[in-house]
C-alpha cells in the first residue's frame, strides 16, 4: 500500500501554471528586455555573462528561442522578470485549483515544495506575484537546475536528502512523463497530470490528496 506522502513536490509549467504563460508571456518579456537589462546592470550581470560562450547576449537570446535549460539563462531571466513584476507589468499565472490545493495540503499538514527548470527566484516571483495573490506562505521550499536536471533520478535523490525524507514519502506531480519516470526511479511517488484530460493520472491538483 502506498504510504501517505509527508511532502509534495510540484512542477510549475503545465502543473500549477499554464505552459502558455511561460511560453507566450515570460519568455518574450525576457527576450525583449534582455539586452537593455544587461546594459543597465553591468556589475550584477557580469558573473552571469562570464558563464555564457561566444557573444553572451546573442547566445542568451538563442537559448531563449531554444528553451534551453541553461542555469545562467534561468538566473538572468529571473532578474529581468523580477523587474517586470515590480513594475506591475507581469502577474504570475496559476490555475484556479492551485491555490485551493495549496491551502488544502497545508491544512493536512503536508508541506509543498517546487521543482522547476526556472530559477528559484523566478519561481518565487510567479507565486509571490500571482493572479491569486501572494502564495509563497503556502510553500516550503524551492529547487531548480542547480540541483540537477529534472529528467535524472539523481536530482530527486538530492531533493529527498534536502527535505530529510525517504523518497517514498514524497509525492511528485508533473505533466512530463520523463520527469515522472526519473522521480519514480529515485523511489518517489509520482503522478502525471494532464490538464487536457488525456492519459495522465490526474487532470487537476484537486484530485491529488483530495
For the largest beta sheet, what order do the strands appear in spatially?
A: 3-2-1-4-5
**Total of DSSP H or I helical runs spanning 4+ residues:** 8
Largest sheet: 5 strands, parallel
CATH topology of the largest domain: Rossmann fold
For this structure, the quaternary state is single chain
Count of discrete structural domains: 2
- The total count of strands amounts to 5
Q: What is the C-alpha radius of gyration, as a whole number of Å?
A: 17 Å
Order of helices and strands: EHHHHHEHEHEHE
Walkthrough of the structure:
With 210 residues, the protein is an alpha/beta fold. It folds into 2 domains: 7-17 and 92-207, Rossmann fold, CATH 3.40.50; 20-86, Transcription Termination Factor Rho, Rna-binding Domain, Chain A, Domain 1, CATH 1.10.720.60. The protein has helices at 19-40, 42-49, 56-66, 71-86, 97-107, 120-128, 153-163, 177-185, and strands spanning 7-10, 112-115, 141-143, 170-174, 189-192. It has a 5-stranded parallel beta sheet with strand order 3-2-1-4-5, with helices on both faces. Helix 6 links the parallel strand 2 (112-115) and strand 3 (141-143). The longest helix is centred in the first third of the chain and has 22 residues, at 19-40.
Protein topology:
Elements: E1 7-10, H1 19-40, H2 42-49, H3 56-66, H4 71-86, H5 97-107, E2 112-115, H6 120-128, E3 141-143, H7 153-163, E4 170-174, H8 177-185, E5 189-192
Parallel strand pairs: 1-2, 1-4, 2-3, 4-5
Helix pairs in contact: 1-2, 1-3, 1-4, 4-6, 7-8
Task: Supply database-style keywords.
Transcription Termination Factor Rho, Rna-binding Domain, Chain A, Domain 1; Rossmann fold; single chain; 8 helices
Amino acid at each position: 500500500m502506498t504510504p501517505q506522502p509527508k511532502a509534495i513536490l510540484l512542477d510549475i509549467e503545465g502543473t500549477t501554471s499554464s505552459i502558455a504563460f511561460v511560453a507566450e508571456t515570460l519568455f518574450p518579456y525576457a527576450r525583449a528586455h534582455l539586452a537593455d537589462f544587461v546594459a543597465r546592470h553591468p556589475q550584477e550581470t557580469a558573473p552571469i555573462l562570464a558563464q555564457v560562450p561566444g557573444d553572451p547576449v546573442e547566445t542568451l537570446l538563442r537559448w531563449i528561442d531554444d528553451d534551453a535549460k541553461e542555469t545562467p539563462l534561468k538566473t538572468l531571466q529571473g532578474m529581468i522578470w523580477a523587474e517586470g513584476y515590480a513594475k506591475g507589468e507581469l502577474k504570475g499565472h496559476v490555475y484556479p485549483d492551485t491555490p485551493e490545493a495549496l491551502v488544502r495540503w497545508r491544512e493536512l499538514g503536508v508541506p509543498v515544495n517546487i521543482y522547476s527548470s526556472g530559477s528559484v527566484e523566478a519561481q518565487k516571483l510567479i507565486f509571490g506575484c500571482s493572479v491569486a495573490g501572494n502564495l509563497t506562505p503556502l510553500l516550503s521550499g524551492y529547487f531548480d537546475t542547480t540541483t540537477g536536471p529534472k529528467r535524472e533520478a539523481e536530482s530527486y535523490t538530492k531533493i529527498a536528502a534536502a527535505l530529510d525524507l525517504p523518497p517514498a514519502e514524497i509525492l511528485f506531480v508533473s505533466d512530463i512523463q520523463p520527469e515522472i519516470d526519473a522521480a519514480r526511479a529515485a523511489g518517489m511517488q509520482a503522478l502525471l497530470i494532464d490538464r487536457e484530460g488525456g492519459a495522465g493520472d490526474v487532470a487537476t491538483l484537486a484530485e491529488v490528496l483530495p
